[in-house]
UniProtKB/TrEMBL annotation:
GO molecular function, one term: racemase and epimerase activity, acting on carbohydrates and derivatives
Protein's name in the database: Ribulose-phosphate 3-epimerase
Phylogenetic placement of the source organism: Bacteria, Candidatus Harrisoniibacteriota
Protein source organism: Candidatus Harrisonbacteria bacterium CG10_big_fil_rev_8_21_14_0_10_40_38
Record carries keyword Isomerase: yes
Family annotation (Pfam families): Ribul_P_3_epim
Length: 217
């Protein structure tokens, strides 16, 4: 299992493509990449999020697997725009879902994994009624939107409690450093998503490898 997934959080396509170019130094064909899509309504900021550009400019040139993190006000509608070639997983926020059964069915029929994100202000119990239908669950350890925020310590307890409830893959996103990854790994997290630690480093490859080592190698 790929333990570290680099996250792309940017306002325009050019910046996204630049980050993907940097990723060539430490990712292999078929590795996972995380794309943040913030709508400026659910979130305080807006990022790049054009599914047509994704299909034409990104998946044609960068042969990775992509998870799309929809930090949006209406995921039930927005998700329909992202049923595209190259999307392997779509992450939506638990408290904004209107019809989870429809989302599970839509993703399943398009061979896309559905993941549900639980943010800092959301109790993990919100997904209890359908937790057994999920193979991937995200704990978001920062306020949805901006990259580079500080890790929320209460996320460690959420990971532990969630691990008691499910065997699904637990993905932790936000504020990832060598130290926070070690704590989250010990609590039961499987996959770690990082943007700033990797891409704001002068040597993204070295930063990526440090995070891999912190996650158990």
């Amino acid at each position: 299992m790929q333990k570290i997934i680099p996250a792309l959080n940017a306002e325009n396509l050019e910046d996204i493509l630049n980050l993907l170019d940097k990723s060539r130094d430490f990712l292999k064909t078929g590795d996972w990449v995380h794309l943040d899509v913030a709508d400026g309504i659910y979130t305080g900021n807006k990022t790049w999020g054009d599914p047509d550009e994704f299909e034409l400019k990104i998946t044609e040139n960068f042969k990775y697997k992509y998870e799309i993190h929809l930090m949006v006000e209406n995921p039930d509608e927005e998700i329909k725009r992202w049923i595209k070639n190259g999307v392997g997983r779509i992450i939506v926020h638990a408290e904004k879902i209107k019809d989870i059964s429809s989302l599970i069915s839509l993703c399943g029929s398009n061979d896309i994994e559905l993941s549900v994100s639980i943010g800092p202000e959301v109790d993990i119990g919100v997904i209890d009624s359908y937790i057994d239908s999920l193979s991937n669950i995200q704990i978001l350890a920062v306020t949805p939107g901006l990259a580079g925020q500080k890790f929320t310590e209460s996320s460690v307890d959420k990971i532990s409690k969630l691990r008691e409830k499910t065997n699904a893959t637990i993905e932790i996103d936000g504020g990832m450093t060598e130290d926070t990854i070690e704590v989250c790994f010990d609590a039961g997290a499987d996959v770690f998503v990082s943007a700033s630690y990797i891409f704001k480093n002068n040597n993204p490859k070295a930063a990526f490898e440090k995070l891999e080592n912190a996650a158990g190698g």
